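Hypothesis: this fold can be encoded by more than one sequence.
Test: take the structure tokens below, design a sequence, compare later.
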């Protein structure tokens, strides 16, 4: 039996902030709300339960010109190594944490309902942090590219948090 080929999205970015601050931005609700979602999107909700076996609920709100709808995800954590690594499965869901197929949210075909993530945090020179985000399971390179574009915009907003300090 043949298995369907899948594609990963890998993105590495350097932040001009120590690992502790970048970690907090991924794990503390008030900070996640500041950067989650591409340019123009907001994050009105981030209920973070960052522990092995914990499940967070994060909401991304589209701008009015894109329909203004809320899109929810759960992040179910398998591995939490503070200041080093987060492994979680992001699942498209409704506000009550029930799984939802991505097509029902208007996302393109090939976006899986469950997207494994590995996020690594590496301290580098002069108190800076190298962050790598790996998402797995996309049906095509094009869909992985769509996700990459969204994550690049999220990380641009994250970088702005550190520029403001």
């Amino acid at each position: 039996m043949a298995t369907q080929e899948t594609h990963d999205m890998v993105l590495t970015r350097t932040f001009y902030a120590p690992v502790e601050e970048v970690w907090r931005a991924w794990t503390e609700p008030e900070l996640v709300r500041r950067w989650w979602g591409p340019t123009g999107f907001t994050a009105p909700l981030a209920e973070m339960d960052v522990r092995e076996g914990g499940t967070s609920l994060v909401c991304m709100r589209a701008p009015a010109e894109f329909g203004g709808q809320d899109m929810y995800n759960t992040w179910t954590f398998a591995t939490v190594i503070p200041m080093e690594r987060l492994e979680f499965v992001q699942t498209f869901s409704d506000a009550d944490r029930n799984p939802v197929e991505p097509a029902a949210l208007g996302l393109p075909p090939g976006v899986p309902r469950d997207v494994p993530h590995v996020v690594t945090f590496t301290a580098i020179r002069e108190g800076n942090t190298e962050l790598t985000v790996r998402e797995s399971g996309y049906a095509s390179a094009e869909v992985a590219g769509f996700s990459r574009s969204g994550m690049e915009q999220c990380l641009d907003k994250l970088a702005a948090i550190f520029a403001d300090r």
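The longest helix spans residues 141-163. Helices lie at 19-27, 29-35, 141-163.
Hypothesis status: open.
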